[in-house]
From TrEMBL:
Organism: Mizuhopecten yessoensis (Japanese scallop)
Enzyme class: hydrolase
InterPro entries the UniProt entry points to: Dis3_CSD2 (IPR041505), NA-bd_OB-fold (IPR012340), RNase_II/R (IPR001900), RNase_II/R_CS (IPR022966), RNR_Ribonuclease (IPR050180), Rrp44_CSD1 (IPR033771)
PANTHER family: DIS3-LIKE EXONUCLEASE 1, RIBONUCLEASE
Name under which the protein is recorded: DIS3-like exonuclease 1
Segments for region (Disordered): 316-336
Single GO cellular component term: cytoplasmic exosome (RNase complex)
Cofactor dependence: Mg(2+)
């Protein structure tokens, strides 16, 4: 929108024409003339500025005053070494407008996006200075002057202007790779230094970042060997692609490489315009030639092949990373499924290149002068990467980080460069670092600037409730019994509850959530860091917080006995537990009790008062009369809360909500972080109680913000599952003559209830687990991005849903809190809230980080599973377990081992084509033979006879190690017997929960009653066995408390 120029402004402005040579969509050169107006008052964005040239808004970050110098890179350095400038330690960078244009037009779109993101990141304290609009910093290009010379002259002129504009308060360092530029400008102005990038880094950063030299050397070597303009040769022109996408001749989607058959199979998922998944959406990309240099995660353009060239995906189980080609180069994948839509990649719309963890081959020979060597990526889906380095011998047993730079048309492998080393292969810190990098999770320490924004809470200066806040909030400290129920060891308590009976006989239910938004204001460094992380990452032995500890474990954590700010949702429920009234608002609370799940459940089950007191610190050191009364009130509140949750859940289940199964394993570590044991998580009713209350709050908050912001509310959508994903579930159900209906969530939920075997409780859990595997992923979205009929949450059977209850560990909840408070206060000015477009971009980022966090947690659990079995003899009793068959393939079966929650393949046919036969004495015999597979059975025919295996049969397997040099090590399952595993420990698995609880209670009471009167052997010959099997492990070594996933449903809703 234009505005009128006042006379004084007209005098200050200088008008000139800028001539640009651009290409149109047909590839023709065009001469474009643009008018450029220059003036004196262009913002310099420096905190040291003495003149009045800064913009009147707070969104533009300032160059800091506390750095030793400002850095001004030239165009070449910004284009080719942007990765170095992105390092978090390098701050105070001035990118000129000339440089930004060079990155955009001489680089590529992805590089330009990275530059814009760098400048937007306030932690980098870097800016773009519009030197071409500043009257005294602009350089007119001379007749006959080449582009590089003009760019260098413009960069130095702007650097010199900056130094004089700031009155010489701070030195300016211009970095370039042109020696002639240094010779020409290096001695012109004192304190305006002109250095090469290497000289600059050696002078300022070598002692602080010793590995930075290796990074620059590696990038330089990669640049020297890169074939100019070969990156996209062979792909179709952009105008052809654009036209083909409009007509539907070409299809666009993200490439997903099959991890188990990476060299042959990849898939592209098509999307409809309204973002609903196309039912017939997967396109098979078969072979590396059809993949055409695309890498896993790239946004690609696909051309469908004629039907006569369509192929099917392989039905053979193979170890990850194994090549399926025979010596003749043909695919030897064996049995395939029915043919599916097949295509080839004709263009790359957007590269997904990132940092990759890799390893040198054990037999890799070092070339002369750091010649080219191949790095094997940690991820099977990524091709080998060719790099130049002189450190092969020194880093042969290390995991290293590399980046891809290009992939030439003539090259079998992409070119890349070395970034840094993570450490020796097999060391715990190295493997954890690899997991974080492979999931694109960056977790650096919180900066001093971020910490300065936050309040202080020390003995000398304790934090206190502000009087003004007390007046703005509803005070619940004297009127409500507020308590929390969390896992043992939980520090970031972000939800508390209250329940009481009102004078009219109705029930009041309150969900009180930490008011993180009081401390984290929009646009602050803490807010930006939280947005970048988006979620707290929980690994098996540690966690990486989204927010600094002063907030997550202190001022925002709703621990007992202290005053805390909260955002509350309080309902009045009638006798049928239907909401009569609901109130949203800011409150101040003081939680009375911090309960653990096990104690809350035990209180509901009738735990004696003296046992309750021993496990609830807040009840200790009180007068005897108070203890009895307070325990009674607390027990009543817990039981009432569970009763309310039962009715809320029953109503959702009647509406079609699914009760799904996900395998969660408790990892118990010793003080030295060695794995002591792996045990399945015990499911308690109180887990469902808390989850149901959180679901109830999330649903009602979603209704409120969707009503207030119909086009820009942040909600969570769980789409309909794709029908073909139910194939395995339906096949297993038919093997047991179960009827499973997938027409709707209600039909699925009701039919899963009938999939029950009184003699085998594992079956129902497995069927629910298979249903979980068929589900689509839930995702955040903006209400302006989807039609109203797509807002629903399939698994929870709710029309609207969001995330509100965990703002300490999820950034989405922080956004929702801000929207809820704006909706409640009915403010008309919503400029501080994200628009629909901003919310779409934010949702995409949060979804990505959420998936990355889940994948990292899974990888961490698999790492510690491997460490648990690593030090054990394969003949150890704990390594032989019962397993249930849930899928049949051409050369084996997939099984679930319930004891450890491990799923994996069991091979019935090896790589040499031999099949296995189990002798009566338990010995395995491998010989020539064949395998015949039907829908429900797989038969192995060998020279020793025929053995058959059926879906949902129990077999015995042994857990062994699957060691890998270049990739993540794990465990594999090997067949031991075709019959169920019968042992003392597995026999106990057939006991019901009531029987287990009765045994535990009986043994515990006997021990308490006879304590001091009888020695331990008087408890019975089976006591130690029972204690080992059912006794509670030491809470000090129980790392399960790090996981809060039981607050989620199995759908990760």
């Amino acid at each position: 929108m234009s505005r009128k120029m006042i006379p004084n402004e007209e005098k200050e402005l200088e008008k000139s024409n800028k001539y640009l040579r651009l290409k149109n969509v047909q590839g023709r050169n065009l001469l474009v003339v643009r008018e450029v107006y220059r003036r004196e008052t262009v913002p310099c964005h420096s905190a040291l500025c003495l003149s009045d040239c800064q913009p009147n808004n707070n969104e533009v970050g300032l160059l800091p005053a506390d750095v030793t110098h400002y850095l001004v890179p030239d165009c070449q350095v910004a284009r080719e070494y942007l990765e170095v400038l992105e390092l978090p330690q390098l701050t105070g960078i001035v990118f000129l407008q000339t440089v930004a244009h060079s990155v955009q037009h001489e680089g590529n779109r992805r590089l330009h996006t990275r530059l814009k993101n760098l400048v937007r990141d306030k932690r980098k304290a870097s800016v773009i200075f519009h030197n071409e609009f500043q009257k005294f910093s602009y350089c007119e290009r001379l007749r006959g002057e080449n582009l590089a010379t003009w760019q260098s002259r413009s960069t130095y002129t702007a650097a010199d202007w900056f130094y004089n504009h700031l009155a010489g308060q701070i030195p300016i360092v211009m970095v370039t790779q042109y020696r002639q530029v240094i010779a020409e400008y290096g001695n012109r102005q004192m304190n305006v230094f002109v250095l090469t990038l290497q000289e600059y880094l050696d002078t300022f950063w070598k002692m602080i970042l010793p590995s930075i030299t290796d990074l620059v050397d590696s990038i330089t070597a990669s640049l020297e060997t890169r074939t100019k303009d070969k990156d996209y040769v062979g792909y179709l022109p952009s105008d052809v692609i654009e036209a083909g996408l409009k007509t539907g001749h070409y299809t666009q989607g993200f490439l997903n490489v099959n991890k188990s058959n990476a060299s042959q199979e990849a898939f592209v998922r098509r999307k409809r315009q309204d973002q609903r998944e196309d039912r017939d959406s997967d396109i098979l990309i078969h072979g590396m030639s059809s993949r055409n240099r695309a890498v896993h995660g790239d946004l690609v353009v696909v051309e469908l092949l004629p039907r006569s060239q369509w192929q099917g995906r392989s039905n053979v189980i193979r170890e990850e990373g194994t090549d399926t080609k025979d010596k003749g180069g043909k695919d030897d994948s064996g049995e395939v499924t029915s043919v599916m839509t097949t295509g080839r990649i004709v263009a790359i719309s957007q590269r997904a290149w990132r940092e990759y963890v890799g390893t040198f081959s054990q037999g890799e020979e070092t070339g002369l002068k750091g010649g080219k060597v191949l790095v094997i990526p940690w991820d099977y889906r990524i091709p080998k990467i060719r790099i130049s380095t002189r450190q092969v011998e020194a880093l042969r047993d290390h995991r290293i980080v590399v980046r891809i730079d290009s992939w030439d048309l003539e090259s079998q492998y992409p070119n890349g460069h070395f970034v840094r080393s993570l450490g020796r292969i097999g060391e715990l810190e190295t493997e954890v670092a690899a997991i974080l990098i492979e999931n694109n999770i960056q977790m650096s320490t919180f900066s001093d600037a971020q910490m300065k924004e936050l309040p202080v809470d020390t003995e000398e200066e304790p934090w206190k409730v502000e009087e003004e806040e007390l007046l703005r909030r509803r005070d619940l400290r004297g009127s409500h019994l507020v308590f929390s129920i969390d896992p043992k060891g939980c520090e970031d308590v972000d939800d508390t509850l209250s329940v009481r009976t009102l004078d009219n006989g109705n029930t009041e239910l309150g969900v009180h959530i930490a008011d993180v938004t009081h401390f984290v204001k929009p646009g602050t460094l803490t807010d930006q860091e939280g947005k970048s992380r988006s979620t707290t990452v929980y690994l098996a032995d540690r966690r990486y917080d989204m927010l600094p500890g002063i907030l997550s474990a202190n001022l925002c954590s709703l621990i007992s006995g202290v005053d805390r700010y909260a955002v509350s949702v309080i309902w009045e429920l009638d006798s049928s537990y239907n909401p009569v009234n609901v109130w949203y608002g800011k409150t101040i609370i003081r939680s009375s009790y911090k309960l653990f799940y096990e104690i809350a459940q035990a209180m509901s089950d009738g735990m004696p008062t003296h046992e309750v007191v021993k496990n609830v610190p807040e009840l200790q050191n009180l007068p005897e009369s108070d203890i009895k009364n307070k325990t009674k009130v607390l027990r009543s509140a817990v039981c009432r809360l569970m009763e309310v949750a039962r009715h809320l859940k029953a109503r959702r289940v009647r509406g079609g909500a699914l009760e799904l199964e996900s395998t969660e394993v408790q990892i118990q570590l010793t003080e030295t972080k060695s794995v002591e044991n792996l045990t399945p998580k015990e499911h308690l009713e109180v887990h469902e109680t808390i989850a149901e209350c959180m679901i109830f709050a999330n649903h009602w908050v979603a209704k409120k913000i969707a009503q207030a912001f119909p086009n820009s509310a942040l909600l969570r959508h769980h789409p309909l599952p794709r029908e073909e994903k139910f194939e395995n579930l339906l096949t297993c159900a038919s093997a047991k003559n179960y009827n499973v209906h997938t027409d709707s969530s209600k039909a699925l939920a009701e039919s899963l209830d009938t999939c029950d075997d009184a003699n085998d409780p594992v079956i129902n859990k497995l069927m629910r687990s298979l249903a979980t595997m068929a589900m689509s992923n839930a995702a955040y979205f903006s209400t302006g991005a989807l039609p109203l009929d797509q807002f629903f949450h399939y698994g929870l059977a709710l029309d609207l849903y969001t995330h509100f209850t965990s703002p300490i560990r999820r950034y989405a909840d922080i956004v929702v809190h801000r929207q809820l408070m704006a909706a409640v206060s009915k403010v008309t000015d919503t400029s501080g809230l994200p628009s629909n477009k901003e919310l779409e971009e934010l949702s995409e980022h949060i979804n990505h980080q959420h998936r990355a966090s889940q994948n990292a947690q899974r990888d961490s659990q698999e790492l510690f599973q491997y460490l648990f079995f690593k030090g054990r003899n394969p003949e150890d009793e704990c390594c032989t377990v019962d397993a249930v068959i849930y899928q049949l393939r051409a050369n084996g079966v997939f099984v679930l081992a319930p004891r450890y929650g491990i799923k994996g393949p069991v091979y019935l046919k090896n790589k040499e084509g031999q099949v296995v036969y189990v002798q009566s004495d338990g010995q395995l015999e491998w010989s020539g033979g064949s395998i015949i597979k039907t829908d429900h059975t797989i038969s192995v025919q060998s020279m020793f006879g025929t053995q058959s295996y059926r879906l949902l049969d129990h077999i015995t397997v042994r857990i062994t190690l699957n060691n890998s040099w270049a990739h993540s090590s794990g465990v594999r399952l090997e067949l031991v017997d075709g019959q169920p595993h019968l042992s003392g420990s597995s026999g106990g698995d057939n006991l019901t929960k009531q029987q287990k609880a009765a045994i535990i209670k009986e043994v515990s009471e006997a021990a308490e009653e006879k304590k001091g009167q009888r020695s331990s052997h008087d408890l019975g010959v089976n006591f130690e066995e029972l204690k080992k099997e059912y006794g509670q492990s030491s809470s000090d070594h129980n790392m399960y408390n790090l996981f809060q996933s039981f607050k989620e449903t199995a759908l990760k809703c």
